[in-house]
Structures
1.
Amino acid sequence: MNKWKNIKEKIFSSNELVAYIFMLPFLVCFLFFTVIPVFSSLGLSLTYFNVMEAPRWIGLENYMKLFLDDSLFVRALANTLVLSVVTGPVGFILCFSMAWIMNEFSPKVRAVLTLMLYVPSLGGAAGIWTIIFSGDRYGLLNSFLLSLELIDEPLQWLTDSTYMMGTAIAVILWGSLGTSFLSFVAGFQNMDTKLYEAAAIDGIRNRWQELWYITLPAMKPQMLFGAVMSITTSFGIGDVITGLFGYPTTDYALHTLVHHLSDYGGMRFEMGYASAIATILFAIMIIANEVVQKLLQKLGN
Amino acid sequence: MRKKEKSGVTLNRSTAGTAAMAIFIVCYAAVMVLPLILMISNSLKPLNELWIFPPKLLPTNPTLKNFKDMFIVMSNSTIPFTRYLMNTVVITVAGTVGNVIISSLCAYPLSKMKFKGRSIVFKTIVLALMFNGSVTAIPSYLVMTKLHLVDNLLAIILPAVSTPVGLYLMKQFMDSSIPDALLEAASIDGASQIQLFTTIVMPNVKPAWMTLILLSVQGLWNTGSSTLIFSENNKSFAYAIQQIGSAGISRAGVAAAASVVMMSVPVIVFVISQSQVLQTMATSGMKD
C-alpha cells in the first residue's frame, strides 16, 4: 500500500508526466482519426489499393491519371476552386461586415440579430431550398419572378447548368455566417472603446477611418481565425450540393473534389486513387490557408 | 467577464450612416430568416395548400397534421423511429460529453503547464484546423476497419471527441480566463494538478464548455448516413428523416415538419448558450 502511494506521489509530483497523462485521451483519438489518416492517405496515394488485395506500389501513376486522364477530376478541381474562391472570401467579408454593422446596436438587438444570422449555418434546412428553387411554376422563386413578369417560363434552377453554380453559391453564402461570424461578433463586442475615444481625439473623422486605422488592426487575431474557418469550409463543399441538387449533379456541373473523393473511395473502393484526390485537397487547403495567413499578417503593418 | 462598458464620449459617427446601416442589416436579416419562416410555414400547411399557385407565405388553415403524419410514417417503418432517435441521442450525448471532458483535459496542460513538446502539439492542432474531415474520410474508414469499429456507434463518437477546433477554443479561453496566480496560490496550498483542474480550471471555463457543447451538438445531431454505419438498426434520426423527404411531393409537408424538428435542437442549444459562446469566441483570435 505504502509503496503504491510512493509511486503515485512520484508520478504526480512530476508536472511533465501529469501534462502528458492529461493530454493522452485527446492525443490518442487525434492520432487514430486525424494523424494516421493523413499520413496513410499520403502513402496510399502512391499505390493501387482496392481493399481486397494488399496495396501495390505504383509511384505517381494515380496523380498522372488524375491530371492527364480524368477529365471529371479536372472539372471537379475547377468547380471546387470556383466555389471556394467565391464563397470563401465573400463569406468571410459577410461575416466581418455583418458583425461590424451589428456592433452599432444595443446588446439586446445584437443578440437577436446574431441569432437570426447564425441559425442558417446550423444546417438541416436544405429541404426548403429545393422548394424555393423548384423548377416548375410552383417553385417559390419561379412563381415570384413569373408574377413580376421578369421571366416568361419557369427556370430550371436545380438542373440547368447555366444557373446551378449561382444557385449553389447563394445557398452556401446563406449558411456561411458560422463560427467566424461569432468570432467577429465577440471580437467587436470586446473591443476597447478607449481606442476609439483616443482616435477621435487624434482626429479620426468618420467610421471608415475608424474601421481602417483602428478596428482592422485590433481585429487581426480574430480575422486570422475566421479566415481559417472560412477557407477550410469552402474547400470542403460537397454535402450542401448533394442535399440541394442530388448526386450526381446534371452533367456533373457541380461535381466537386469531395464528390470525386467519395465516389472513388466510398463506392468504387479504389482507395489509392481516392487517397491521391484527398492528398491534393489536403495540399490545396493547407496552401490556401498559409497564403491567406501571410496576407492577413501584412494587413495594417 | 471581459466586457467593457461603453463610456459617454461621442465618436465621430454620422447619424445618417447609422440609420443606413440599421436599414441594411434589418433587410439582410429578414432575407436570411425568410427561408426558415417558409420552412416552418410549410410544415403547418395542409397538403392542399402546399401546391397552390401562386404559393402563399403563410398557411390559411394551419395544422399540426404534418407533424402527426411524420410520427405515423416513422412508426410504420420496419424499425421503430425511436430506435433512430435513440441512436442520434446516444451519439450526440456521448460525443458532446466526451468532447468537453477530453478537450478540457488536453487544453489545461497546453495552456498552463510547461513541458517538452508543448509548442509542437499546439502547432499541430492549429495546422489541423486548416483541413477538414473530408480529407481524412477514406483512410479513417480503413482505420475503423482495423479497430473493428465499423457499424458501431463508436465510429461516429470517437472522432467527434477530438476535434481540433474544440481543443483550440478551449485552450485560448483558458489562456485568458484563468490567472496563473490563482493556480500558483492553490498549488502552494498543496493542491494536486487534478485538484487544480477540477476545482479551479473546470468551473472557470464554463463558457468554453457551452461553446464545445454547441459545436458538438450541431455536428452530431445532424449526423446523416455514413459509410461507417451499414446496418439499419444503427442508423441515425437525420438519416430516417432524409428517407421521408425523398419520398416525393406527397410528403413535402411531412419533410418540412421533419426539418423543423431537426433544426429545433441546435437552435435551442444556441439560444441557451449564446452569451457564453460569445465570451469564448472573444478569445478565439490567432496570435502571430
2.
Amino acid sequence: MLEVQNLMVFFENALALNDFGMEVREGQVVGVIGSNSAGKTTLMNTLSGLIIDMRIKEKRRGGERITVYGKVLFKGEDITKTRPSERVKKGIVLCRERHPIFPESDVSQNLQMAGYLRKRSEIRETVKEVFDLFPALIPLKSRKAGFMSGGEQQMLAVGMALVARPQLLLLDEPLLGLSPMMQHLLVDAIKGLKAKSGITVVISEQFARPVLPMIDFGYIIENGMLTLTGTGSELMDNPEVKAAYFGI
Amino acid sequence: MKRRKERIDRGVKARSADIFALTSYREMLYLLIPGAIPVVGLLCFTPILSDYWREVMISTAVYALLAMSWDMLMCAGLLSLGQSLFFGIGSYLAGSLNYYAGLPPILTMPIATIGGGVLCTVLLLPVLRLRGVYFAMVTLVLPLMLSRLVEATRILGGTEGLTGLTPFPNQLTALFVIQLALLAVLFGFRRIMGSDYGLVIKGISDNDRSVMSAGLNIYWYKTQVLFLGACVGCFAGAFGTHMDMFAGMPGFALDYSLMPVASAVVGGTGTFAGPLIGAFILVPLSEMLRALGALRIVFYGLFLVIFVVGLPEGIFAYVQRKYQQRERWVDIS
C-alpha cells in the first residue's frame, strides 16, 4: 500500500533521515520505533506531506533549507510531490504528536471540523464510531477541548484523524506523555480499530514496550538510519532491542 | 548525481571569532567594517549633501529613531502601532517647556526625553499585561485620543499648536545631533540585546511563562523596555519640534506610527540595524516619489508588498547571512 524508497531528508546540513526505506501492506499495523531525534517525526511529516509546507515556509523566511530526496509511493502512485491536502483526499491522514486539537472548540465541534471533507451523514456515523472507540470522551462532548487532560486530548486527536476516514492512518507518538494506564487504553483502542475496520496504521513511538506486541511489522531507526526490521515478536526477542528499549 | 546546496560559515568568520581577530588585519577589518559603515556613512557622507537632501536625511533619521524604538518594544513581544504617541508627547513636552518656560533646546530635549519616557510608560502601564493585537490596539488609539483631547480642550495651543519655538543654530548642528543620537541608539540597543539582559527580553517574547518560571518578573522587564523605547521616541519628538519650530497635533499623526513599522519590516525586525536601513530606504524613496503626487502611495504600497512577500526576513538579515556564510553545492551519495 505504501512504499518508501531511499528517503533522505536534510535540515540545512543535518541529516534527519538517511537512505530510509519501508513498506506497508494493506491492513497491517506497522511500527517505527526510535529514540529521541531518531527521525520519526520527520518521517511522519514526509509521509503526510507536511514537509513540503515546512520547506516553503522556511525558504521564504530565509531559515533552514530542507532538502528531500527519494520516493514515497502510495498504491503504486508517486506522491512525493503531492501536497498534504491532496494526500488527505487520497486517504493518508496524520495525527501529529503532542495532540494538536482546536482548544477553543468543544469535543464534538472538533470532530466535526476534522470531518469537513465528508458528507454530513458520514460524519455523524464516524463520530459515533469514535465515541464507541473512546467511551471516555462521551461525557466530555460539550467540554472545551483546551481544558481537557493530555490523555483526553490525545484520544480526541486520534478520533479527529479517524473522522477523516483514512485508508492509511499515521500516528506520530500517540503515547507521548500518557500514563501507563492511558497508554494501555489507547493501544487497546488501536487494536480494536484494526480488528473492526481493518485500516492500515503506521505508528511512530519511542515506548517500545506497549507498541511492539500489537504491531505486524516494525522498523527500528537510529539517527535517521534503519537499524533493524522484523515482525513484532521477532523484535521483542532481539537482545539488542531488549537492551535498548526494555532495559533488560 | 544528487546534489544539495550547503551553507557554511566563511573561514574568516570562524577565524575572527578567535584570537586571530587580534593578530590579523584581515580578520580585524572583517569585524570592524559592518560597524564602520553606518558611522562613516552618516557622519561623513550626509554633510556633503545639498541643503534639501540634508533636510531629508534629518527627517529620515527621525523616522529611523522611531523605527528602532518600535523594534526595541518588539524584542519584548510588545507590538506597538502607536509610535506617534511617543513622538507627540516628546514634541509637546519640549514645545511647552520652550514656549511657556523659555528653556533652550539644550535643556528641553533631555527633559522631554526622560520625562516623556516616564509619562508614556505610566500611560501604557495598565495595558502592559495585554499581548499582541490588544496592546497594538490600545497604542493605536491613544495618540488619536490625545490629539482629539488637545483639539477639544484647546490646551497647548489647541489646533494652532505652539509656534515660534527656538530653532537649532544651523542645519549642520541639527544633522549632527540627530545622527549622533541615531548611532548611540543603534549601538546601544544592539549592545543591550547582546547582553544577558537582552536574553531575558528575547525570552519574554519567545515564551513569557518560562521566563516567569525562572523567577523573573516579566512586567518589570517589560516596563523597562517600554521606558527605553519611549525615551527614544520622545527624543525624536523633541528634536522634531525644535527642527520645525512647531509643536502641534500633527505630532500624533498616523505617519509616525506606520512609517517605523514599514521600515522595520523592510529592513528586518529584531536587529535595530534593519529598521535603520529600512528607514533610509523608505523615507528618501517617498521623498523622490513626491513628484508623482497621489500616485506615489501606489508605488509605495507596491514596494512594501514586494518586500513582505519576497524577503520576509528583511534586508539586514539577508545581507548579514551573505556576509557570514557562503553556499556551495555538495554531492550526496
